Amino acid sequence: MIAGQRGASPAVRRAAGFMATAALAATSVLAMPASSAPQAVLASRYTIPAVAVNGIAVSELSGMAWDADEQRLYAVSDQGYVFHFRLTLDGDAIVACDPDYAAALTNPQRKGAPRAHFNAEGLALRNAANGKAGDTVLIVSLEGEPPGIMRFDPAGAALGELAVPAPANDAARFRKKGQGLEAVAFDPAHGVITAPESPLRAQPDGLHTLYAQGRQWSFERHSPDSRLKGIEWLPGGQLLALERSPTQTKKVLIASVRRVDLAACPTNGICPADTLAVLPPGPDNFEGMTEIGPGRLLLVSDDGGKGSQQTTLVLLVLR
User: Fold this and answer.
1) Quick check: is 5 in a domain?
2) Dist. CA 75–CA 132, nearest whole Å
3) 184-226 confidence digits (pLDDT tens)
4) Backbone torsion region of residue 203, taken as left when φ is above 0, otherwise alpha when ψ lies between -120 and 50, otherwise beta
5) Residue 4 lies in a domain
6) Closest by alpha carbon to 178, among 154, 208, 198?
7) Omega before 199 within 30 of 0, i.e. cis
8) Number of domains into which the chain is organized
9) Residue 228 contacts residue 257 (beta carbons within 8 Å)
10) What is the pLDDT of residues 1-18, one digit of tens each?
11) How far apart are CA 11 and CA 93, in angstroms?
């Protein structure tokens, strides 16, 4: 069981697990690709209650990252906030995801900068090599003009800017407003890896491209208009990609999880990509993804700041 289970009796955990399973049963079954690749099973769904922490509503979550050392889930929002959660699992059922901290992302070195400057979209963690508590650094990709990547401490204070790899550092290359820098990951071999939501201008329309300093990788989009919403680095030169595709029905979306093999990708060539799962069509607006343990992926659906939608977590387990 993952952290956050303190104080929950077995009966409470079983009841919560039953409710999560019942909610899951109400959804469609995952559309699984015909592939020999590992496949992901939708194990649990959980709706984060509409609450506020320090006067800040838990809303519009756009990026997540799991800190295994601290057993803590971090998230950032479109509105420029950072949140801390305690996640409780009973087997593969999400029992609770309790927010215990929230604050605005701030830049002490830039006095008077409006909070809107931090349109946080993607989140990755980098822990110091010595593993000491308090050494966690949040790496956040920022949508806007100019696009940015910044380091923050867990409390939300800026620690400095990071260079955005070219050509993703030029907002004029983005296809449309709102389709700018979206996802970020940290690879010990290549450093920061980032990607825009849609292919850049002058890039092939059918390929998503990941950018690092002095290197880039491309892979085929899951569908012609799929948006790249999140990436997650895995050991061994692999990376997970979360894509979201529109349908012909308004407000019905389809999310897919892909595994991109960077190690098998020719220099500046097209990387092999396996589709691990395609989630059922629906209103879920999946924006962020993080691995919370080997073969366990946690996805978050952005409520859009609207009362008609909810902040929903989905746990996928690779089989």
Assistant:
1) no
2) 21
3) 999 999 999 999 999 999 889 999 999 999 999 999 999 999 9
4) beta
5) no
6) 198
7) no
8) 1
9) no
10) 555 444 444 333 333 333
11) 14
Contacts of 136 (CB under 8 A, 6+ apart): 67, 69, 70, 125, 126, 127, 128, 153, 154
DSSP character string of 173-184 = GSSSTT-SEEEE
Two structure tokens written together for 49: 């209650």
DSSP 165: P
- The pair of three-digit structure tokens given for residue 169, joined into one six-digit string: 């550092």
Radius of gyration of the chain (CA): 19
**Segments forming the whole domain that contains residue 250:** 10-318
Give 56-75 as a DSSP string.
EE---EEEEEEETTTTEEEE
Is pTM beyond 0.90 here?
A: no
Residue the block writes with tokens 């509105």: 79
CB 123 within 8 A of CB 184: yes
Distance between CA 124 and CA 138 in Å, rounded?
Answer: 6
User: Does residue 2 sit within a domain?
Assistant: no
In-domain check, residue 155: yes
The CATH number of whichever domain residue 260 belongs to comes to 2.115.10
> Which SS3 state, helix, strand or coil, does residue 13 take?
helix
